[in-house]
Amino acid sequence: MNTVRPRLRLVVVGHVDHGKSTILGRLLADTGSLPEGKLEQVRASCQRHARPFEYAFLLDALKDERSQGITIDGARVFFSTASRDYLIVDAPGHIEFLKNMVTGATRAEAAMLVIDAAEGVQENSRRHGYLLGLLGISQVAVLVNKMDLIDYDEDGYRRTVAEYSTFLKGIGAQPMAFVPVSGREGDNLTVAPAAMPWYQGPTVLDLLDAFEGSRPRTDLPFRMPVQDVYKFTADGDDRRIVVGTVETGTAAVGDELLFLPSGKRSHLKTVEAFPRVVAESISAGHAAGVTLEEQIYVPRGEIAVLPSESRPEVTTRFRANVFWLGRDPLVRDREYVLKLGTSRTTARVEAVQRVIDASTLAVDDAAAAVARHAVAEVTLKLSRAIAFDLQETVPETSRFVIVDGYEIRGGGVVLEALHDEQAWVRERVLLRNAKWEPSAIPP
Ligand code: GTP
Ligand code: MG
Questions:
Q1: How confident is the model over 163-170, as a mean pLDDT?
Q2: 288 pairs with which residues across the strands?
Q3: Quick check: CB of 409 below 6 Å from ligand 1?
Q4: What ligand 1 atom has the least distance to the C-alpha of 70?
Q5: Which of 335, 261, 272 is nearest to 302 (CA)?
Q6: Percent of the chain surpassing pLDDT 90
Q7: For 9-42, what is each residue's pLDDT tens digit?
Q8: Partner of 418 at 20 to 30 A CA spacing, among 39, 41, 131, 279?
Q9: pLDDT score of 106 more than 90
Q10: Residues 6+ apart with CB under 8 A from 112
Q11: How large is the average pLDDT for residues 79-90?
Q12: Residue 91, pLDDT above cutoff 70
């Protein structure tokens, strides 16, 4: 049954009011992707309330956004072309909602960054661009919008392109393309406009299909963070079911699983969908419950991997790129909670290497704290070891969030695992667990 169409996750970002929702709404309308009658319904509602029709309202109508004409939450839009399906997240541009932008971008494979041609490059045009890079999104198309407001002037367009290219070069990024568009007029979204004879490049629709889908996550090493362990005790049923969502890779019944950080091992016995045995293997994307041959105790937070594949890192210290969203700065003498995969650990900032203003790119090597909306390179020290990967090996298990007072205040990606004092103890435990032999002596 290989009828699953490829799907690309895309995020639309950029400064507030630069036209992200308008472009997306217009794109849906021009490609006939809206539910039957939606366009008419929104137009009629605008007329009733005596306000001008906006394509952006289409997105509000698809997802109930509280309306002050700005996007607050990231609306999710499903969209298809002949070649594949898209899940597009319309991120908010206002700085107050930076967290929603980051959430929307976290799992995206590509991005469209929108800049208002009349207003030019603004603070969040740069900040969003920087965060895309930090999150590992390398496929970015820049749409220079509202070309109608500058009379489709080529020089005006070139100025914006030059300014933003310089910024991107500064952070080592390179966009796939720049496209002059008008979301409101529909220029260059699905058809090349007569108004810009000087532009010969792709339309937005062409660009969408030019993005490359990321490599299937089943190609990556197997990673299943353990969510919980259920125990069935009724009627002499003594199965323990280990549940979790497979982030990447594949494991089959009979495979040996290694649980980290504990180092315990067991073989995958069954894949369960209680009460039936359902599958011979589990792979990326599956929320699965499995039973093991050998009865071992594994707590929530461990990551199941295959010992035959590349291993995650296990340590209490690492260097990371973080972005900070909390009102109070991220400081050294305070305890936070770090969540990575299903693990939850208290963490402290051991050192702040440098703080970067993601908009101006000003670097502060001497900062002791990370202020709101800044990004930084820091060393984190955890109260106990966890398993994780580096961004370039398995991005899914390299990302974490920092929680303070039950709220997500920041997030980041691990850059490098650092040595810690507990390393030798862990290695001995790992060795012991690896050599563990079932005993012939009954309990
Ligand atoms: P946030 O989600 O709040 O960050 O804003 P946004 O980027 O989604 O902007 P939105 O699509 O809501 O558009 C903001 C305003 O710009 C609206 O009044 C639009 O009508 C207007 N606008 C968007 N695209 C164009 C365009 O191509 N030309 C002109 N003239 N106006 C546009
Ligand atoms: Mg919007």
A1: 94
A2: 244
A3: no
A4: 3
A5: 261
A6: 63
A7: 999 999 999 999 999 999 999 998 888 888 999 9
A8: 131
A9: no
A10: 10, 11, 12, 13, 23, 140, 141, 142, 143, 204, 207
A11: 89
A12: yes
Query: Residue 53's pLDDT is what?
Result: 92
Q: Does residue 339's CB lie within 6 angstroms of at least one atom of ligand 1?
A: no
Q: Is the CB of 429 under 6 A from ligand 1?
A: no
Tokens of 439: 């005993």
Of 67-71, 209-213, 230-234, the poorest mean pLDDT is in 67-71
Tell me, using a 6 A CB cutoff, whether residue 56 lines ligand 1: yes
Q: How far is the CA of 16 from the centre of ligand 1 (A)?
A: 8
Q: Which ligand is nearest to the CA of 17?
A: 1
CA dihedral 163, 375, 89, 284 (to 10 degrees): 130
HEC per residue, the chain: CCCCCCEEEEEEEECCCCCHHHHHHHHHHHCCCCCCCHHHHHHHHHHHCCCCCCCHHHHHHHCCCCCCCCCCCCEEEEEECCCCEEEEEECCCCHHHHHHHHHHHHCCCEEEEEEECCCCCCHHHHHHHHHHHHCCCCEEEEEEECHHHHCCCHHHHHHHHHHHHHHHHHCCCCCCEEEECECCCCECCCECCCCCCCCCCCCHHHHHHHCCCCCCHHHCCCEEEEEEEEECCHHHCCCEEEEEECCECEEECCCEEEEECCCEEEEEEEEEECCEEEECEEECCCEEEEEECCCCCCCCCCEEECCCCCCCEEEEEEEEEEEECCCCCECCCCCEEEEECCEEEEEEEEEEEEEECCCCCCEECCCCCECCCCEEEEEEEEEEEEEECCCCCCHHHCEEEEEECCEEEEEEEEEEEECCCCHHHHHHHHHHHHHCCCCCCCC
The per-residue pLDDT for range 150-166, each reduced to its tens digit, is: 999 999 999 999 999 99
Contact 314, 344 (CB under 8 A): no
Q: What is the mean pLDDT of the chain?
A: 89
Instruction: Tell me how crowded residue 348 is: count the other CB atoms within 10 A of its CB.
Output: 16
Residues in the chain: 443
Dist. CA 435–CA 343, nearest whole Å: 26
Under 8 Å between Cβ of 402 and 411: yes
